[in-house]
Design a protein that fits this description.
alpha+beta; 7 strands; flat; about 375 residues
């Protein structure tokens, strides 16, 4: 038995009830969207009919049909021939040129025998894998990963480490000490100074490093993950400032003067942020069909894919119904272009509102309002 299929995520367009495939294929047989691929495989001895191998579950790390079919074929070769395929007996060792060739062939579904992976090429391939998409652009998340991993190549070269398999946990511990914060200008002297990396920033950087080496191990470029033994960086969340009732009222009262043409829409956006605690990306992508008399039902959050039900006061529900949505499907987004761009536009809108109302969008020792962060993720602290 050999059955390879896809389980689409809730927000995937192929999982929507109204989606109709032009070729008449069922959703489980539509590949290429990046959703998890599963397989049901049962290999029996052709003579004795004994079960040699069974698998019923996810093919972890595989998102293309060609790669899934090759893996299942390798299982059949392994268990029907009585020996493993040659590629499975070789240790990962690749040169720079060969690693590029292997990556390109992997995208086509063919996997040549693995050889040592060079650190610089492993970083490039990891970035390419994360950014593999029909859209040819580098998102903020990809840029952040690149900013963390690019210095790793130079650091390892200084340690005379060329191949990925030679990277040790001790190297990564020392690499973490090289992380620095932003360069800022002192207000009194105008001198540029280097700030230390914040604990939150160090923890995020370490997360990127661990993601990279975990992916390398899954691809069998390395047998042992050196980042797995890194001691986690503890981060203490600063207290979130609670805005005073006067500040909240001032924000709402300033909206008509600041945004006369879309006052109702901005007011609804601010109220949804205040009472739902949704991230900006989830608020921007709030669907018209998610609104009920008691609140909103988000089928899949953008960051976690988890559904959430948010009860809203009647005045917030009324605010959402008081203006014409930007599109048929969404309250605050046209549905065209990238959601990330729309989030940045709304962050700029909120920043303009905060400044017009005279309410500080940042404060010492506290979390920044997403309106000043500009990254489209976070919660507006208006509670």
């Amino acid at each position: 038995m050999r059955d390879i299929y896809v389980r689409h995520r809730p927000r995937c367009r192929y999982s929507q009830a109204d989606y109709e495939d032009k070729k008449g294929r069922p959703p489980r047989l539509i590949f290429g969207c990046g959703c998890p691929i599963y397989a049901r495989v049962e290999i029996r001895d052709p003579v004795t009919k004994d079960t040699l191998f069974q698998h019923n579950g996810s093919l972890k790390g595989i998102t293309s049909k060609e790669a899934a079919e090759e893996l299942v074929t390798a299982w059949f070769v392994k268990y029907l021939s009585g020996e493993k395929p040659p590629a499975q007996n070789q240790k990962p060792s690749i040169t720079v040129q060969e690693s590029i060739t292997r990556y390109l062939e992997e995208k086509k579904g063919a996997q040549p025998p693995p050889k040592p992976v060079v650190v610089s090429e492993a970083v490039r391939i990891f970035q390419s894998t994360r950014s593999a998409d029909a859209r040819d652009y580098e998102s903020d998340s990809i840029r952040k990963v690149r900013d963390v991993l690019a210095p790793l190549v130079t650091f390892m070269a200084a340690k005379a480490v060329t191949y990925l398999k030679d990277v040790k946990t001790e190297h990564l511990v020392e690499f973490q000490q090289t992380w620095k914060g932003r360069r800022v200008k002192r207000s009194d002297t105008g001198e540029m100074i280097q700030l230390p990396k914040s604990q939150h920033g160090r923890a995020k950087y370490q997360e990127y490093v661990k993601m990279f080496f975990k992916r390398c191990r899954r691809l069998r470029w390395i047998e042992i993950d050196p980042a797995e033994l890194l001691q986690g960086i503890r981060v203490e969340d600063p207290a979130i400032k609670v805005y005073a009732p006067e500040e909240k009222k001032k924000l709402l009262d300033t909206i008509p003067q600041t945004f006369p043409k879309k006052a109702d829409m901005v007011r609804a956006f601010v109220l949804v942020q205040r009472y739902s605690a949704l991230r900006i990306s989830d608020t921007v992508a709030l669907e018209v069909g998610s609104l009920t008399d008691s609140g909103v039902e988000v089928k899949a959050q953008r960051k976690t894919d988890a559904p959430v039900s948010c009860a809203l006061p009647p005045m917030v529900v009324a605010a959402l119904r008081s203006f014409e949505p930007k599109s048929v499907g969404y309250f605050f987004w046209t549905g065209n272009g990238q959601l990330e761009t729309a989030c940045k536009d709304w962050s700029a809108t909120l920043l303009k509102l905060f400044r017009a109302a005279g309410v500080p969008e940042v404060w010492q020792g506290g979390k920044r309002c997403p309106a000043s962060a500009g990254n489209g993720e976070g919660v507006l602290p208006l509670r």
